[in-house]
Hints:
The complex is a heterodimer. Chain A is mostly helical. Chain A has helices spanning 2-17, 21-43, 46-63, 73-94, 119-128, 131-141, 147-154, 158-175, and strands spanning 111-112, 117-118. Chain A has one domain (3-94, 112-176): RNA polymerase sigma factor, region 2, helix turn helix motif (Rna Polymerase Sigma Factor, Chain: A, Orthogonal Bundle). In chain A, a hairpin with a 4-residue loop joins strand 1 and strand 2. By secondary structure, chain B is α+β, with helices and mostly antiparallel strands. Chain B has 6 helices and 37 strands. In chain B, strands 1, 2, 14, 15, 16 and 17 form a 6-stranded antiparallel beta sheet that branches. In chain B, strand 9 (153-156) and strand 10 (161-164) form a beta hairpin. The interface between A and B is large, with 84 and 73 residues.
Amino acid sequence: MTRAVDRESGGDIDLAVAGDEVAFARIVATHHEDMRRVCAVVCSDDAVAEEAVQAAWPIVWRKLDSLRDPTRLRPWLVSVAVNEAKQLMRKRHRRAEIEVVADTTAQPGGIDPATGIDALDLDRALDHLDPDDRALLAMRYVAGFDASELASAIGLSPSGTRTRLERLVKRLRKELE
Amino acid sequence: MMDDMKAFERQLAARLEHKAGPRRPVDAMAIASSVTTEAAAGRWALVTRRLRGSVPAFSSVARFVAATVIVALFGGFLLVGILAEPETGEFTPAAVTPSPSPVTVDGLLAGMVTSEDPEHGVIRVENDGHRDIYRESGMWGEGDIEVGADGSVWIIWPEGRFFRLGQEVMYDLDQFYDAEHGYYDIDGFEAGPDGTLWATSGDDIVSFDSELDEWTPLETDGTLVHDMAIGVDGTAWLMTDDGLVRIDADGSTLHPWPQANDHAEDWGSLQVSDDGVVWLTWAADREWGTIVRFDGDEWHFEPLPSPVQPYVEARVSPEGTLWIAGDEEIVHRSLARFDGSEWTVFDERDGVGSWGGKQGFVPQESISASLGGSVLVDASDGEDFPAECSGMARFDGTAWTELPSPVCVVDADTGPDGSVWVLGPPGTLDDGLRLTVIRPDAAEFAD
């Protein structure tokens, strides 16, 4: 599935690099929501997530010709958006603009009978994670990245990425015991 | 247990899906039109085009080949000795060459040295004692800072670029670019005491001599290098599949692991104190939840106290005090200190981590221990230093001192004089990104 999408995007990359706005729009249509949803997990704020993705697209347009491997388009796009999301979070903190904002993505709680863990406790644990860790989880469990895509996105080897992800999930699980 | 983890992963995935929210319709054509219209009118594109025309070729192939032959014939001073007389072990230098792909600063523009690299955009180096370096967005991951025992300061990017402060030249590690998978496969960097920077990637290891502008790969016979440390005398130590490898001017020596190598998935870190003792930690608990010291002749084993199993990071101070930041739980993190004979564990009663009560300091990814018995921690406290923007704090075993920094801490290292170097994050500025390097005075941190 991913490979098929990437192949299609590969042709669109060439066209978009050549200035084809319609081809660029197809890339936007294919990937915008993956980018926004990963950013929503990173920021816990829909508005910031949308702003981050809006800020990411001009960067993508400028830098698309530097993408060395078209099959890495999806992790690259999500990386750009996550980077922008992190900048926005930092900017807001540094400008003291962030008050205590309610998590706009919060959902009702409830104990999962399979694990015995309350969903709200899990949400709180996720909120305490480093944004990079939240991004890693979101790319894996929301965007469905495989190890190779995760590795491409975070700049580690696939085996190193798997280890980091496994340790992160185990730590979360242990925290909630 | 396995089923339990699978159930937890399912719950985790469901929760993350909730946080991500439902998919929404996207007006892709409107976004694309807005982006392309803005770009057509944008200043950035004009600047980029103007600069690109004035930049010299990235590297002349003919010049590179000629220089490679010349330098290979006459050799570099350090590793030729190893090549001539390898004693034991498996690491031999392949050839000394000019440094890879130097991005030479090409001009002065309004007080700023400016260079351009077609792959990574414009790099700007200011001439006022500190450097603000701009790069294009699009790479996730943040930099690394390494300070050598000679005081040389290196900034390293995850995409394989590196830069020594004071030398307005940047280099890249294109040879480590994995074209098949689309990432730079670089495991670690370490600054030597003599203006050298070492880098490892799987079974590749190279040293770069910034004074001679030479680049020396070592042939490792396929042995994977998991971590590396450089002593104050320039001796390099490598944590490999087969054992601990020592490299000095006399050659390389393999010291096989003292017990069965059943920890292959749990490689940890390698440190060396000024007395030449090598300290090894492993990432997981199990039977290797142990600090291993190698003094050149004998192996010594010290079990890790349980609150710091597993750990985030271990750092050895020059005088041989080991600090470990525990990672047992997300928030209940601990610090432990080993002075060579006994452990001291610090927890929330000492202001380390918290849960439900007053927020203490939560060590993040970086600790650095070189101010006597104190530890410097890249920490968050949930207030002044939140998790998404941690700051530096010093802990002397009794009290914490916050070290105000104008930037969120990405990485930190200490210099030979006790100075602390902090690498800030890439922050958006105009159309580029900025990496800020700060060197506070040691005295300022001491109080």
